[in-house]
Structures are given as C-alpha cells and as structure tokens.
Design brief:
The complex is a heterodimer of chains A (330) and B (274). Chain A is mainly alpha-helical and 330 residues long. Chain A is 75% helix and 0% strand. With 274 residues, chain B is an all-alpha fold. Chain B is built from 11 helices and no strands. In chain B, helix 3 crosses helix 9. Chain B is elongated and about 75 Å long. Classes of the chains: A mainly alpha (330), B mainly alpha (274). At the A-B interface, helix 1, helix 7, helix 8, helix 12 and helix 13 of A face helix 4, helix 5, helix 8, helix 9 and helix 11 of B.
Chain lengths: 330, 274
C-alpha cells in the first residue's frame, strides 16, 4: 500500500474516533446532567427496590462525576448499554437489536438504494440533456423536496390505504399467530413495506437528483467536455466520462444520508406502524425510557462514524484531487 | 449592482416572495374576516368544505380555515424566531473563529463538524422530550441544532473578507481588532446574516412542523404541524376527512417551497460575487 494512502486512512480514522468520543460525551451530558438522568428512575414507582440498589451501583451514582463518566465508558466498551425503564430487566441492546433493527435496516437500505439509483440516473440524464424536459423534472423535484415527509406519508396512507385499499394501513405483518409458509410471510412483509418505501423514496430521490443534476449541468460546460466533443466522441461516451462526477456526488450524499440508516424513518415508521428503531425512538420518548433513547443515540453516532470512514476511503479512489492535494477534502 | 439588487431581480426570489406574501395575506384576511378563533366550536364535526367553512371542520367542529390561518402565523413565528437565534449564535461563533483562528477556531469547527454530522431530528426529539414541549423550548432546541450551519457559513465568508484590501489597509494603519470587527466586518457580513436567517427559517419550519406533527410541539398553540397531529389522532383518516390532511400540509409545502426559492436565489447570487 502506498504510504500516502496509509497516512490518509490513519488521519481519517482519528477524525472518526473524535466523532465517537464527542458523541459519547454528548450522550453523557444529555442523559446525566439534564433532567432525565438515571436518578429519575429512582423516584419512579415502577422500579422495584432491588433494581434501585442495582442502579446506584451500576452508574456509581454515589461517586463523583468523573468516576461516573469512566464507569459509563467502561460499561459501553463492554457492550453494556443498560436496562430499559419500561420493559423492566430487559437490556437495551436486546430491545434495539433484533427484529426492530432488522425492520429498519431493510426498509431504509431499500429506500436509499432505490432513490440513489433513481435520483442519480435521472439527474445525470437531465443535467446532461438540459432543455425543457430538464426544467420540468427539476421543478417537479424541487416541489417534491418541499413537501414534508410526514405529510406525504399521511397522504399515501389515506389515499392508497384507507381509500383504495391497495396497501395495508399499518404494521409489518398480518400473521401474528397463524402458521404460514415462509414465502407467504415474505410476500406479506413486502406488501406492508410498499407504503413506507414509497414515502421514503419520494423523500430521498430529490436529494440525489438535485445534487447530481447541478454537478453534471456545471461539468457539461467545462473545457474538457468541449475537447471531448471536438475529438468526435459520441454523446454516450461523454456521458460515461461525466458519470464519474455524478458518482462522487452520489457517494457524498449516501455518506451524509447513511447517518439516517437507523433513525431516518421516525415519521414514516410512526405513521405506518412499522416496527423499527424509528418508531421505538418515538415510543420511548412518550414512555420516558431514557436508557433506550441513549442506546439509539449512541448507535446512531457509531453508524455516522462508520459511514463517514467508508465514504472517506471511497473518496480516495474516486476523487483524484485527494491524492494530489493530500489530506484536504473538497 | 449590489447583492441585494441582484437577489431582488432574481425571478426565483420574486416567485418565492410572492408565494409567501400570498400565504400571509390570505391568512391575515381570513383572520380579519372570520368571526371565529381556533378555540370556537362552530358547527358539526367533520363537515366537508362548504361556502360557510371553505376548508371544512375538524373532529371538534372547529373551522379548519381558522385553524390554518392561525397556524401559519405560529409556524412562521417559531421559524423566524429560531432563525434569528441561529443567525446570532452563528455570527458570534463564526466571526470569533475566523478572527482569532488558532486553537479557538479548531475547537469550534470540530464541534460544528460533529453537530452537522449527527441526524438533527434524533437530537431534536431527545432534547424536546427531556426539556418538555413548549413554544420556547422548541425554539431553543431548533437553535441548538441549527447554529453550526450558520457558524460555518459566517466563518467562511468572514475569512474571505479578512483577505480584502481595505481590511489589510486598516490593519496596516494600526487599527485594533475590535475596530476592524465593528467598523468593517460586521457591516459587510450583514447580507450573509440576512441570507442565513432565511435559510435557517426554512430548516426551522420543517423541524417545528415535524415536532408538532409528532405531538412534541406546544399543544396550546396550534401550528400547522399540530393540526396534522390532531387530524391523525382523531378519526379523520377513517372518516375520510381529507381536508384535515391535505390543506395544512399543502400550506407547509408552499411556505417551504417559497423559502427554498428565496434561498436558491440568494445562494446563486452569492456565488457570482466570489
């Protein structure tokens, strides 16, 4: 491996670890120093006395703050995110990981993939083509980008669900107790996903489209494209050359948006009763289940950091400017 | 031509501004004309749009047009108030970072980078839940989430100003840092601050509507998101009361679209200058 690549990766790695550290400190501050710290559960009649003793010991609540912070970091490092206030005795990790995380990741990754493909390809073509069709598409997608996601969700649930009976109104499955073949379960799951997936695709596509379209539209007028034209390259070949710029733009957005992988669908999951982490976040707020909230927050931070790191590696290979300039980005 | 002139002449700005003005004037006109407030029950529940109630009534028999016309102002107020707070913090942090550079700059920008990288909705939801929903707390939370973007913009712009010949000249004449900041920097940053307020208003309104839709807004004061929250909670969806869902959301979309167009016009004209 070239030395500059190693330097670049090491540098990026430390930047990413800094995000994680900031995140853990922020979580400590938010959930300890503000109302909502573990002591609140000591006053909560739902918590039995044994659990009370356990809480004081576990958080070191009788010790100074910096010791509490060290204890908190040690617990996290061991993968111990604490216990839910509501589902008493159930570890936060059990509540978040498993079915809920699976549902969310399936929904979000399908939505992001669909919209990245749709938005990038449309943006590439329209930005390259220009003209009336480009104007039409661009204004429509700006309009779509202005529609709040929860409103689009309500409209789809109302018209496609309640009015036309095309999609299930809510939930992830229709079979709670019956024994049915696996393929029926899978089809039923996909049927339930149509509504939320449409909403999220409508939400994410304009982001990709607008960004990619503007990049391509700017590149189209540059000297090297004129040169390529003068050399007699076909439109298709030029489009392929330009698509590299579109790809960089897409990676940028995916990197930014993958922060939303875990919690990007709070509205959509809440509206459609999709049993995922977004809805868990919403429910936990109303149930004041702070350990679960903290768990979701920390998980988000870890996902953000990982996504940034992967994107940095991709940039290195996609964007030659990074190799030349060294460590400066964009 | 100055930046202000260029923006005012931009068709995107003109369309956006006209839309916003129409929304405000229509709401104002209805509030002056209609005898009701958002607390009055004025007819049977779930009445479809009619001449008397142009946008129908809700589950409690309140006039939806009245709810919306009040909601528009609450939504705009929260948006603008948070945006002004955002721009103020952004100005202070951005100018401090750009003028002093060094360690202060590094630390501030690291914090900005961190805050920009985490999904704002999660932070907003958790903070509002902990601080308890009220109009003041919603504004505060939106400002906590929104200031980093503004700070980064102001910092970048200030840095470009510091290089300018007239500031170099002023420095050569031996002016103090305070003098340069107050006399030269602040007046020249004003357009970017105004732009920052408009950009912030857009983000703030989206966030406020979202929080209100989830029932985490100030439930005493009806904003556009709150109307949608109550519509979902009541039997509006099953009863087929489309007017309770379509119109409030449409208003949010129009306001956001108008602000997007204005933002685009500002950004487009700022670029020409650089």
């Amino acid at each position: 491996m070239p030395r500059e690549f190693v330097n670049y990766i090491v540098n990026r790695f430390f930047q990413v670890m800094l995000i994680v550290l900031f995140g853990f400190i922020a979580a400590f501050i938010i959930f300890r120093l503000l109302p909502g710290d573990p002591t609140i559960s000591l006053l909560d009649p739902r918590v039995p006395p044994e659990a009370r003793e356990e809480l004081i010991k576990r958080f070191g609540l009788d010790r100074p703050l910096y010791e509490q912070f060290l204890l908190y970091l040690t617990n996290l490092a061991r993968g111990d995110f604490g216990y839910s206030f509501v589902y008493i005795g159930v570890p936060v990790t059990t509540i978040i990981f498993g079915e809920r995380l699976f549902n969310t990741v399936v929904l979000m990754s399908s939505a992001m993939l669909t919209s990245a493909l749709l938005g990038t390809s449309l943006g590439l073509i329209m930005g390259f083509r220009g003209g009336l069709l480009d104007k039409l598409f661009t204004s429509t997608l700006y309009l779509l980008a202005s529609a709040p996601v929860f409103w689009v969700g309500l409209l789809i649930q109302f018209y496609a669900g309640y009015r036309l009976n095309m999609i299930p109104i809510a939930g992830t499955t229709s079979f709670y107790f019956e024994e049915v073949p696996v393929y029926v379960l899978v089809l039923d799951y996909i049927h339930h996903m149509i509504g939320p997936l449409t909403v999220l695709t409508l939400f994410f596509t304009p982001l990709y489209y607008i960004y990619v379209r503007n990049v391509v539209s700017n590149v189209r007028g540059e000297d090297f494209v004129l040169t390529l034209r003068a050399l007699g390259l076909s439109d298709l070949r030029i489009l392929l050359r330009i698509s590299r710029f579109a790809l960089i733009a897409t990676v940028t957005i995916i990197a930014n948006e993958s922060a939303l992988l875990i919690v990007g669908a709070v509205f959509t999951e809440t509206i459609f009763g999709w049993n995922g982490v977004g809805r868990l976040l919403y429910d936990s707020i109303f149930k004041a289940d702070y350990p679960v909230l903290q768990g979701i927050f920390l998980l988000t931070i870890i996902v953000v950091a990982t996504a940034n790191f992967i994107a940095d590696i991709l940039y290195y290979f996609l964007d030659p400017r990074i190799k030349v300039k060294g460590l400066t980005r964009r | 031509m100055s930046l202000l002139h260029r923006v005012l002449r931009d068709p995107l700005f003109q369309i956006g501004f006209t839309t916003l003005l129409l929304v405000i004037l229509t709401s104002l006109a209805w509030r002056l004309y209609s005898p009701w407030t958002s607390k009055d029950m004025v007819g049977a529940p779930f009445q479809p749009p009619s001449i008397e109630h142009p946008l129908g009534t809700d589950d409690l028999g309140r006039d939806v047009m009245t709810l919306i016309s009040e909601g528009v102002f609450i939504t705009l107020f929260v948006g603008l108030a948070s945006a002004i707070l955002i721009a103020t913090i952004g100005l202070l942090v951005g100018v401090t970072a750009a003028v002093f550079r060094g360690l202060a700059d590094t630390i501030l920008m690291r914090i900005v980078d961190f805050l920009l990288s985490i999904p704002s909705l999660v932070v907003a939801l958790i903070l509002v839940a902990i601080l308890k929903p009220s109009i003041f707390n919603v504004i505060l939370v939106i400002a906590i989430i929104g200031w980093p973007a503004s700070a980064r913009l102001v910092r970048a712009y200030t840095l470009s100003l510091i290089e300018a010949p007239y500031i170099e000249a002023s420095r050569a004449l031996g002016s103090s840092v305070t003098h340069i900041v107050v006399r030269h920097l602040i007046p020249n940053i004003t357009p970017i601050i105004l732009g920052s307020i408009l950009i912030g208003t857009r983000a703030a309104i989206l966030l406020e509507s979202g929080l209100s839709f989830l029932g985490l807004g100030d439930l005493e004061r009806v904003s556009l998101g709150t109307i949608l929250f109550y519509a979902r909670r009541s039997a509006a969806l099953i009863s087929g009361a489309y007017w309770l869902i379509v119109f409030p959301g449409l208003l949010i979309m129009l306001i956001i679209l108008a602000l997007t167009l204005i933002t685009l016009a500002i950004e487009r004209n700022l670029k020409v200058k650089e």
